[in-house]
Design goal:
The structure holds 2 protein chains of 2 kinds. By secondary structure, chain A is mainly alpha-helical. Chain A contains 14 helices and 2 strands, in the order ααββαααααααααααα. Chain A folds into 2 domains: 26 residues, no CATH class; 227 residues, MetI-like fold, CATH 1.10.3720. The two termini of chain A are 27 Å apart. Classes of the chains: A mainly alpha, B mainly alpha.
Amino acid sequence: MDSSAPSAANPIPAAVQIAAPMSSVRKRRALLTNLTGYLFISPWLIAFLVFTVIPIIASLYLSFTNYDILSAPVFSGFANYERMFFKDPRYWKAVSSTLFYVFTAIPLRLIFALLVAMLLNNSYRMTPVFRAAFYAPSIIGGSIAVAVMWREIFGKAGLVNFILAMIGIPPTSWLGNPSTAIWTLILLAVWQFGSPMLIFLAGLKQIPTELYEASSIDGAGPISKFFLITLPLLSPVIFFNLVMQTISGFLVFTQAFIITGGSPLDTTLFYALYLYRRAFETFEMGYASAMAWALLLIVGIFTAISFKFSDTWVFYEHKEG
Amino acid sequence: MATTSADSPMMVFLRKRSTRDTLLYYVFATLVGFVMIYPILWLFASSLKGPGEIWTNTSSLIPKNLAFNNYVEGWAGFGGITFATFFTNSFFYATLATVFSVAASVLVAYGFARVKFVGRGFWFTCMILTLMLPAQVQIIPQYIFFSKIGWVNSYLPLLIPRLGGQAFFIFMIMQFIRGIPRELDEAAEMDGCSKVGIFFRIILPLIQPAMITAAIFAFYWTWEDFLTPVIYLNNPKLYTVSLALRSFADPSSATNWGAIFAMSSLSLVPVFVIFIFFQRYLVQGIATTGLKG
């Protein structure tokens, strides 16, 4: 990997190069390049080792212990994992509510993002303004202010019930009803389709116009163009969005923490929220570490499966020009 | 970003630009846009409504009487600590974290993009993998470590890890550096410029747009960060705006909703101000990183 660098940049003309002194110059250059490289990446490298690698190993160890921070960790074998998988129904509640959230909120968000990106893929003068309006919810979406706002919008005396009352529909306890509470969080997630929308928009602009023109001549309508041109050519972008958005979906925390607090009946007790409670409210660090490792495996398996199946539907165009 | 030739079926349909199509587009986009920003407008409107109006004239975006007093009452905060403290804390945290993240990310990005050192591919793969790593796996041991060395209830556990940069920004800046012609580096190298010299004289001046994009995101994510502060900061004097809002709007004790909405609105002001002035950088940043990922 490093061999090409010195030769490519070697300022000494070939005729002057003499074998013996050259090799030592080369070695010195290679050493210098390596030193420079590691010097530049050292901030990340040190932080990676100290704040990522060591903690991951430590959490694997902790997952086999009982640990409340105050007293020393006590080795307990697979007890935490046994409890998690076989004795803790709340854990499975957390898994199933998270999966439900991920597999409804993320596809809905991406469908909206794609539809709106197609709507905005034009050159009307006001389009940048619309784009900003559609993107605005996403930049504030993670904030506590928006979470508090959402809670009050769906509160008993809140905005939604107020509007429903105007058209004669009786108020509902959106956050208190086990079948609706999770949907308020899904709606909040769908509302923030801005980032994938911008990525789709950039992808749409790269699709060559000629393809659409050629298919028009062949008599293709808008729907067949969408399925035969837009969707296949956009598939790498869809894949990227799908993987990154799904991973972030698995980690949803703040919104559930503020808006529903996991209730009612643990229907919105998302994985990250339950893990937080075990770690920082009841200080079961060993159990929470086991949950964290199971989450790592879930996310890892999901990512591996997505990559595995990606070549069946993701279409990579051959580079041209 | 806006413009020209790209055609989706929707575009082909709209391209005829008959008055009817234009009108249809504007009406539809305005309607959807209004639904999108209505909740935000509602929050700002509610922050200016009097106590009798918030839950009775709920859906209206125009307060009958402007109750600026909500902002005064909200600013007074709770437990003898005003929102001046919380905003100062948040600005302190967000500014330092942004400077640390961006400065480190720029250095690391240059190292990965332009210096061919042994092990580069391996470390780069590690860095990309951290993008997919759930933070939950690191949080618990990090907390234990920081609490053992007595850093809980300080900003050190929030700021020190930022000195390593952030994978997302490193990757984004790398993409940007890759777009700079290598001939520039090579010419400078011919003239005897070292890799360090190339970084400061050639790369750094050219990557300012990417740095601005990274800085905006870093600021946003720190400003809105909740998980890290809630774990490490228990002393109300150290609360960020996010933590303060959580306590201030606690449903079991909250009564003054005007004040709560006022402080919630105020907490979003820095975000929107940056958005209005730097929208171009945000849009480009998301588009390039996303596409080349």
